[in-house]
Structures are given as C-alpha cells and as structure tokens.
Write a structure and sequence with these properties.
The chain is an all-alpha fold. Helix content is 74%, strand content 0%. The protein has 14 helices and no strands. The radius of gyration is 20 Å and the shape is globular. The two termini are 38 Å apart.
Length: 333
C-alpha cells in the first residue's frame, strides 16, 4: 500500500512560521503572571493602561521579538558557516565566533565607555572575524581543514575567549558588569531599545543572505565545482564568511552567547528541506527562532518567578547533539 505523499518542502516554511506564531502567543502568557491564549489575544487588543496589557507590551513582547530575531541570526550564521567550510560541526559558538564577538563587545564598552552606539556592533564584528580566523588558521593543515580538528580547536579557542571575557567582567566595575549581563546568554531584560539596536543590522544582513543563496550553494559544492562554474573562489568565500560572522556578531548584541543554536537549527532544517540554501536559510532561521523562544519560555515557566537562562537550556540540549555529531563524523572518517 502506498503511503501518503510527502509534504512539499516549500510548504514547510509557512508551517514553521505558524508554529513560531503559536509559540509566541504561548510565550506571551508564560511567567509569574500566567495567561491563557484567549486572555493574551484579548489583552493585546485592550487599552495600554490595563495591567495585563502593559505586561505584554512592555515586558514580554519585546523579549520574545529579540529572542526570535537573534535565534534566527545565529541559525543563519551556522547554516552559512557549515556550507562554506563544508563542515557539519561548524557553528558560531563551536568555531569561536560568538565568544570572539562577546569579548570584543566587553573590550569596547570598557575601553570606550563614551563611544557612539555604532562602536559596539563594529567591535563585535571585528572580534568575531578575528576569532574565526584564529580557529581556521590553527585547524588548517596541509592546505585542508579536517572537520574533527576544526571542532576540537574551535572548542578550545571558544573556552579560552569565554574564560577571558568572564575574568574581565569579574574585575570590572559593577556598572559595567550589569550593562553586560546579556552576554551570559539570556533574553532576560530585553526591551524595545535592545530590539531596535539589533533590528537595523538584521534588516540589512538577512535579506543579503537570502539573496546570495545561489553563491552559497556553489561554495558548498566544493572548490573544484566553484572554479569550474567561473566563480572567483577566494573573494566569494571571504564574503560568505564575513556575512556569517556578522550575523553572529549582531545576535550576540541582542542575547549574548547562546550555545549551540547555530549548530542545531541548520541541521534540523537540512533534514526537513534539504541542503539547498534557498529553503535551508529561511527554515534554519525559523527553527533558530523557535529554539530560542522555546528555551526562554521554558526557562520562565518552570519555576516562576525564578528564571532559568535560555543559554543554559540551549547548551543542555546542544552539547549531547554535538557529541552525537562528533561520533557520527568519526565513523564516517
């Protein structure tokens, strides 16, 4: 007997978007003050002076939007890095991009406390690019970058940079430490100001990534295929890596270092829609948003009014998955 026909892959994108919308409604009602989905919808249409409406608009809605946007950025970065490096273990946190961006942001705010607002994303971008470059150079051997070697060196560099960042925060003034609390990997305290700080960069980088899906496909096929198709390999690879690091750097500005989002979401998206970047990128971004919003919602709802950081939950989920991928890669080799 023939089974039911599989759902067309493009149809999965709107389904993921609907799932994100439903999770958003659930997240709006989760917290110390609980509300059901119908109560949430009613409160969203009520006057802003009402208590429940103020909680939704002033506290929970910007938090959910920041989490979804930064989760999408991390996932897009991971998908691009995995495709360009052709390494299934590559991600913003595994290859040091997130920790490099976070460390650079710390240095920027401590050394330049009165710097203009654009100094933070520029510093985070530079730190992310430098960290990835360090991992890539250390992992490169005989003109190649073995996946396991890249992953192991990336973990070591990531841990070193993250440890240095934490040491600086411990030694810093209380005001600086409070200002950088978001770097610990949490959506706690996200407000409209933080959303509008991230949104302009996301509005530029996400459409750019989507427009470059054909170039990313060619790069993921390998160097020989790219050259045979007439692509200038090194400039194209540099542009793609810069785009991936920029996406992760902007995400760090919004929610700090959320572990393994850029690893899990692209892998899950690849299983759903295949390796083509035309569908892989939007599916990865939606899954990344679902992962971060889901982790933050779970962290708020388990033991209210206490909150578990979203970064802790994504790490608890991602670490076993990373070990599974390491073991699978070892069997393939």
């Amino acid at each position: 007997m023939l089974g039911r026909p599989a759902l067309p892959r493009p149809a999965l994108i709107p389904l993921l978007a609907l799932a994100l919308l439903a999770l958003g409604v659930l997240a709006l009602g989760t917290g110390a003050v609980r509300m059901g989905p119908l109560e949430v919808l009613q409160a969203l249409g009520a006057p802003r002076e009402e208590t429940h409406t103020r909680i939704l608009y002033e506290l929970r809605l910007p938090r959910i939007l920041v989490g979804a946007l930064c989760g999408a950025l991390f996932a897009a970065s991971g998908a691009i890095l995995q495709g360009v490096v052709r390494n299934p273990l590559a991600s913003p946190d595994i290859v040091g991009v997130a920790a490099g961006a976070g460390l650079a942001a710390v240095f920027t705010l401590i050394l330049l406390p009165r710097a203009p607002a654009w100094a933070l994303p520029v510093g985070a971008f530079g730190g992310a690019l430098a960290a990835f470059g360090l991992v890539y150079l250390l992992a490169r051997r005989a003109g190649e970058v073995p996946p396991i070697r890249l992953a192991l060196i990336g973990v070591a560099v990531e841990a070193s940079l993250d440890g240095l960042r934490r040491l600086i925060l411990v030694r810093a003034d209380d005001s600086i430490a409070q200002a950088l609390i978001f770097l610990s990997g949490t959506v706690y305290g996200a407000d409209w100001e933080r959303l509008f700080r991230v949104l302009p960069f996301a509005a530029l980088l996400i459409p750019l990534a989507l427009l470059l899906h054909r170039r990313l496909d060619v790069l993921s096929f390998g160097d020989e295929t790219a050259k045979s198709l007439g692509m200038r390999l090194e400039p194209a690879r540099l542009a793609a890596l810069a785009l991936g690091t920029a996406l992760a750097a902007v995400a760090v500005m919004g929610v700090g270092i959320l572990g393994f989002v850029g690893l899990i979401a692209p892998h899950a998206a690849r299983l759903l829609v295949g390796p083509g970047f035309r569908l892989l990128l939007p599916a990865s971004m939606l899954l990344g948003a679902l992962l971060v919003v889901g982790a933050d919602t779970l962290g708020r709802g388990l033991v209210p009014p206490l909150e578990i950081p979203a970064g802790l939950l994504t790490t608890l989920l991602g670490a076993p998955y990373f070990l599974y991928l390491m073991r699978k890669a070892g069997r393939v080799r």
